[in-house]
Every structure is written in structure tokens, then in C-alpha cells.
Amino acid sequence: MENNTLDNTVKITKLKYGNTKCYLLHGASKSILIDTDWAGKLPAFYHALREKKLRAQGINYLLITHYHPDHMGIANNLINIGIKLIVMDCQQNYIHQSDHIFYKDNNSSFQPINDKKIKVIKINQSRKFLASCGIPGVIISTPGHTNDSISLVLDNGEAFVGDLYPQEQVPLYNNPVLTNSWRKLHNNGASLIHFAHYADKSIISNR
Ligand SMILES: [Zn+2]
Question: How far is the CA of 71 from the centre of ligand 1 (A)?
């Protein structure tokens, strides 16, 4: 295994300051925030951090499970305060797909993501990237809810899947893409699923 640190435990802080459950992973050397909320939620984000006695300056990276407006709304605000947005290569063509929703909404708080400030990582290099943060795990492409959906699976089985449709709904959709995404989660040892909106769910891992 790439990660040779003595302490492999990743501390997880749940941050909810709107309708989306966001997760902050504290690795041995760097921290990664998974998802944000709607544009205009920056003050609420700061408030949620203060309540947990955390500072935005202590967050190194932002990873977005998919570029829907309730997940990427304040991404560029966070870029502006020095949090690096990590975009997986399979997401690169989708990072502006929600901009029109905010423009139509006349949401004056919204800032589109500055493409020049993002860091694109190949999905097959994700374990190496996470290891550099002291986070044992992997990021996999899990389309089904959207084409750009990704999941982060820690080696301890905790998985962050965003808005992926729950496993019990898979037969309803009869969608091979969705079925395959759940198979991939199983094969990567996912056993405790953290959704962005649904409650956490334990599943039987294939591992
Ligand atoms: Zn969504």
C-alpha cells in the first residue's frame, strides 16, 4: 500500500448549512471538503465551520461529487479563499453545466468556476493523490444520477457518493450504468454509504 503513515484514520466532519450534506475529510497531511451548497451559502458555510471550531484556511482541497447547483454553488468562492478545486478528468466537461440555472435565477452571489484555478486529476491517479493527503482510499467514476458523478471510497469502507440513487432503487431504474456504479462501489470495498441527501446506509461489501 502506498500509505505508510502510522495513523490511517481519517477524521470526518459532516457540515450541513443548507440542503446538502457536505463532508470534510481530515487526512494525515491534508484535508478535503466534499461538496458545497447553493450559491449564496458562503456565510452559512463560515458559520457551520465556526460551530465545529474549524477554519476555512485549514481546508486544502474541494472535491465535488457532481456539478449540480446544490453541490457546486459556492465552489468559486472557496477557490478565491485558497481552497484548491480538484476536478477529476471525467468531470472536466461538466463544471459549467449548472451556471445557466444561477443566471436564470438572477442569483447575484453566484460566481462561475475559474477554469484557470482548477487542478485536474486523472481518475486512475486518484489513489496516489489521496495518499499525498494522507487519506487511504480511491475516487471512482459512478455515473447514474449524472454522467460526471464520482464517489470517494475510503479503505475503511466509508463511501461518499453524492446523489447516486440508493442501491434499493437500482431495480426500479433498470439502468446498466447505475447497476455498474454500485458494482464498482462493492468491488472497492464500500460498506458505509454517505449520501448527500439521504441518511447513511450500511451495505454488505464484496471485500
Ligand atoms: Zn444532483
Answer: 7
Domain coverage including residue 198: 11-202
Comparing CA positions, the residue from 44, 41, 37, 96 lying closest to residue 62 is 37
For strands 158-162 and 11-16, give the pairing. Answer: unpaired
Instruction: Going residue by residue through the chain, which has 207 residues, state the pLDDT in tens, using 9 for 90 and above.
Output: 444 445 678 999 999 999 999 999 999 999 999 999 999 999 999 999 999 999 999 999 999 999 999 999 999 999 999 999 999 999 999 999 999 999 999 999 999 999 999 999 999 999 999 999 999 999 999 999 999 999 999 999 999 999 999 999 999 999 999 999 999 999 999 999 999 999 999 987 666
CATH number of the domain to which 21 belongs: 3.60.15.10
How many domains, the chain? 1
Residues in the chain: 207
Write out the residues surrounding ion ligand 1, Cβ under 5 A. 68, 163
Alpha helices in 26-90 (DSSP H): 42-51, 69-72, 75-80
